[in-house]
Amino acid sequence: MIKITLPDGSVREYESGVSAHEIALSISEGLARNVLSAEVNGEVWDSNRPITESSLVKLLTWNDEKGKETMWHSSAHLMAEAIKYFYPDTKFAIGPPIENGFYYDVDLQGKTISEADFKKIEEKMIELARQKNNFERKEVSKADAIAYFKKNDDEYKLELLEGLEDGTITFIRKEDLQIYVEVHIFQIQA
Fold first, then answer.
1. Quick one: which of 170, 158, 167 has its CA closest to 188?
2. Distance between CA 102 and CA 177 in Å, rounded?
3. Fewest beta carbons within 10 Å, which of 23, 27, 54, 126?
4. pLDDT digit string, tens, across residues 126-160
5. Hey, where are the domains in the chain?
6. Contact between residue 142 and residue 177 where contact means Cβ atoms under 8 Å apart
7. H/E stretch holding 52
8. Using CA atoms, how far apart are residues 139 and 75, in angstroms rounded to an integer?
9. What DSSP state is assigned to residue 18?
10. How far apart are CA 38 and CA 85, in angstroms?
């Protein structure tokens, strides 16, 4: 059993591997429906990531700035997946949340997106969101990340990796795809 300390100071015990979503569900179904992510020991985690040690946990909703950032970050990746559907040769650089939304830097390989395309991209995003797909989190070495992006001829992600010291890179893969739809490129201390 691990101890989860909530912001109000209350402590609850759970089996190791409990997720923020499961913690929220143990409090109330309404809370569970609204949790977007969690702050675990000061670091934002997705709501389904297993918590394996006693931790301080804050459940994040739309009412929290970091909850909004989570929603916008995920939305940026949904948009990237929708764009990739209509423009398969697109290459992606970064897709961060910003103060009041999100964006994704894209290279359409000579094609253009017009205002008329926005509706179909938005509809595809909604379709993808409704699928409620599961995602697999995978930690890889910098060398493996470089090999993956070289194989996929992805110069933008390779450029992001250049400045990092060796450490671990997080890939997040949609369960039914053999491609990584989201890649967090940051160094985790080795």
1. 167
2. 24
3. 126
4. 998 898 777 777 778 888 888 888 888 888 888 88
5. 2-61, 68-130, 135-184
6. no
7. none
8. 22
9. B
10. 30
In the block, residue with structure tokens 């997080």 = 170
Contacts 24+ apart (CB under 8 A), 156-160: 156/91, 156/92, 156/93, 156/94, 156/105, 156/107, 157/92, 157/93, 157/183, 157/185, 160/93, 160/94, 160/185
Q: Among 28, 26, 20, 83, which residue's Cα sits nearest to residue 55?
A: 20
158 token code pair: 């390779």
CATH of domain 68-130: 3.30.980.10
Q: Would you mind telling me the total number of residues written for the chain in this entry? A: 190
pLDDT for residue 148: 85
On whether the 2-61 domain is CATH 1.20.950.20, my answer is no
Same fold, 2-61 and 68-130: no
| Cα dihedral 98, 100, 101, 103 sign | negative
The answer to whether the CB of 139 falls within 8 A of the CB of 169 is yes
Strand 97-98 to 2-5 pairing:
unpaired
Asked whether the predicted pLDDT for residue 186 surpasses 70, the reply is no
The reply to whether the predicted model has a pTM over 0.90 is no
SS3 19: coil
